[in-house]
């Protein structure tokens, strides 16, 4: 059974940093496009970042460009989301998801279309507050 697991969330002050991890339990993430999404309180889920199966390409939401970095270590079966300069608006539950296409980042503005993802984790809470 495919299972994605997120970790690394927590409470951080504005301007701080967190690194989220997404691991595959029971299957390898190698070669799979992976996306990070978030759902803020009272808002719809939105795409944050995605990375191709090879790690060669990535794509970011405008709201996080220059602050967040997605990367992967296939040897550790893990995809990371490094979040810097965090703002209260970044608060939410963060999810990782597996894409049905390896080169999901090439879809540009459509890269975060939910129909491109078929397996989701349970999420990890990120709270940015002083």
Task: Using brief descriptors, characterize the structure shown.
four-stranded antiparallel sheet, 130 residues, mainly beta, 0% helix, 47% strand, 11 strands, globular, single chain, seven-stranded mixed sheet
Task: Compose a concise summary of this entry.
The protein has 130 residues and is mostly beta strands.
Question: Overview of this structure, please?
Answer:
With 130 residues, the chain is mainly β. Helix content is 0%, strand content 47%. β4 (34-39) and β5 (45-51) form a beta hairpin. The protein is globular.
Q: Strand count, sense and closure of the main sheet?
A: 7 strands, mixed
Could you spell the SSE succession in H and E letters? Answer: EEEEEEEEEEE
Look at the helices and sheets and give the structural class.
mainly beta
Number of DSSP helices?
0
Characterize the quaternary organization of these chains. Answer: single chain
| Portion in strands | over 45%
What general outline do the C-alpha atoms trace?
Answer: globular
Helix percentage range: under 10%
Radius of gyration, CA atoms, in whole angstroms: 13 Å
Poorly predicted ranges: none
Give the N-terminus to C-terminus distance in angstroms: 40 Å
Overall pLDDT: 94
Number of strands: 11
């Amino acid at each position: 059974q495919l299972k994605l697991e997120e970790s690394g969330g927590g409470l951080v002050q504005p301007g701080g940093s967190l690194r989220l991890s997404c691991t595959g339990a029971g299957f390898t993430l190698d070669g799979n496009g992976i996306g990070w999404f978030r759902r803020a309180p009272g808002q719809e889920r939105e795409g944050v970042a995605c990375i191709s199966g090879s790690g060669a390409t990535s794509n970011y939401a405008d709201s996080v460009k220059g602050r967040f970095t997605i990367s992967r270590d296939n040897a550790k079966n893990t995809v990371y989301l490094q979040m810097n300069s965090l703002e209260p608006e970044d608060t939410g539950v963060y999810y990782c998801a597996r894409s049905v296409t390896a080169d999901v980042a090439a879809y540009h503005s459509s890269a975060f279309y939910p129909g491109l993802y078929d397996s989701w984790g349970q999420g990890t809470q990120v709270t940015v507050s002083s």
